[in-house]
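Bumping with the actual sequence this time:
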Amino acid sequence: MKPYSSSCERNSAPILNVLKQVIGDKHKTLLEVGSGTGQHAVSLASEFPHLLWTCSDVKSNHEGIGLWLKESNISNIKGPLEFEIDKDDFPIGDFDLIFTANTFHIIGWKKVEIFMQLCGENLKKNALVIIYGPFNYNGKYTSQSNADFDVWLKELNPLSTICSFEDVSENMLLNGFTLLNDFEMPANNRTLVFVKI
């Protein structure tokens, strides 16, 4: 039975709206880090037929991703590749887009830092890194629901927490990226778009 995420179902359309603004014909290869159930790939990749969308995630999620991809039969999706941050090498490929959704607040700051470093080491000039999820600004939650969500995250895993926008931006800059866009999204989420300089 396929895994199912109601949040993926809800946020796919708003994310697609953002991707249509930042992905152009010049972009050919996208790596999705943390594909989860595979729903984002299935709902988004078909909108960009010129783009090869590669899924990646920890091994335990591969079966579910595979079920979604097999059922969709979308020709421009490949994978999933095995990629666990702080364990596996960065996937091999000439990627000019990285997309990750709802991962930063789950994996913990140490792995977020490693992810940003890997992007800096493996992406070429003008590559984009697109990050969707909740962020804090100026040391504060953007809503009470995000504050409550952060408490819930920490109860599940003490390392999980909503990241600071400023910390992410500063570390991306240290790894060779500058902020291109910061999109406001439904449900107190954001989509941050960074470009390799």
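The tokens above came from a reply further down the thread. The mean pLDDT is 97.
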